[in-house]
Please model this.
Amino acid sequence: MTQIVDRPDTDAVDHHDTPDRPRWSQLYPELGTGAITTDRFISQEFFDRESKLVFGRSWINVGTVHDLNGAKTFFTRDIKVVGVSLLVVQDAAGGIQAFHNVCSHRGNKLVWEDSGPCPFMFSCRFHGWGYKHDGALTSVPDEGEFHFTGEPDHPDKSGLGLVPVRTEVWNGFIFVNLDSEGTDSLADHLGPLAESLEGFPFDKFELRSRYDVQDEANWKVIIDAQNEIYHLPMLAPQHRFLGGGAFKTNDDGYTRLSDFERYGWHTLYTSDSDVNWVDTPLRTAMAKLNVEADVPQFPLRAPFMFHVAFPNLIIGFLGNFMFTYNVWPESVGHSVWEIRMHHPKAENLADRVTHDLMKVRFRDLLCEDVAGHAALQVGLESRARDIFVVGDQEVQIRAFHKNLDDYMERADNE
Amino acid sequence: MRHLCSVADLPAGVLLTVQLEGLPDLLVCQVDGKFHVVEATCSHGAVPLAEGRVLGCEIECPLHAGRFDLTTGEATRRPAKKAIRVFTCVVEGGELYLQQPGVLVEAAPAAHSA
Model:
């Protein structure tokens, strides 16, 4: 990966509307200014490479501690792009470990529930083989009929536990790596992104809502569409309205990134707020009733921050609201957009109402995006054009695609 | 005073573009019996507002649906942000005239609302 060590401090530059402001393409010359190919969004071959070289090898966020309920609880996660089902277990001591959710007997999917308290043992529905919470096989009905000799093709019970998957937890985000031969740690992978968020009080957030959206678009269409704010003032009514609120625009009404950073494989962009924005009467009234809700509670360097944790996790902040996206490829033109909304713990009814207001506002906004994703995929699949262009205010998209290319090239060469 | 058009040519719903030397193109229209003269080009997309539509006392740009208050010139809906200029006019003998010097409002970018 290209490292530009003498890049100016992008955070110290006013990127808004000065005529002589540095262009992002000048600050990030390694990203170039050329077009992006359509093929990468519609090609089965490209999708297969992503599956093998990215999702099969990278650290993937499969959930958070909010999916568990403390010790001796579990959740399952099917990852269609790599064709696996995982069982993620928090043991009695609090440790979190993922296993292939597959019984060692005949390969049945072991646990069919989404989540819950761990049973006494995870018992296969097919023939009742039972596994402890650490994955060890402890119960085999009619065991005497099997040939557990310990020879290579006759493994004994100790060799027939659930197959563990490399698992690490970062600030409550649970990651797995399906490359059993890989050696890079999650810390290696997150690198400067994790450093930029070191000490951030993620534990102050509660998960308040989740949407799993069936999205008729390639996974990168979804990430790209979210990974810029150029579209905000124009896409649709909710976007127009909020585009003038969370997002500062220049005098011509165009959004301007406050900052953009490359953090290893990952990126961050930020935006300031528009000081002239007038919120809806309801939200304005709520703000007066619940002044505390708008007092910044978190050490954020901008009112809006959008982290893309490669490959498919987004961690965003909008004031005291944190949202995450997991964009799950399922096929070339279909993905699941998993949206989670987090707030600080509600102290009173006014907090709850404020949070719910944010929930419906954000949900309605994202509904406009979903329609846009499907329209983008239709256009790309038409092959009307082999390429499309992106501007300097979409520098994040260039970075994402370069990271993707670099990641696959590195994997190809290993 | 400079002649803009006949009142008879400006029923409600008609959007006229008038060119006068030394001035930007002007959009002339009538809403509820009141005549409005504003800059004819959207401050955002630089397209003729006469191709748009009047909604209440606002003109909506045909390209990105930004809106402007015909009375104040204020941009009332994104993506429009900069105000357009508003000019004063007067009716005499069934004819509409631009008053001189004419500029009623040179508004700063205004607060935004839904």
Observations:
- The mean pLDDT of chain B is 88.
- Chain B touches chain A at residues 43-44, 64-66, 75, 77-82, 109-114 (CB under 8 Å).
- The beta strands of chain B are 2-6, 16-18, 26-31, 34-39, 53-55, 58-60, 67-69, 75-77, 86-92, 95-105.
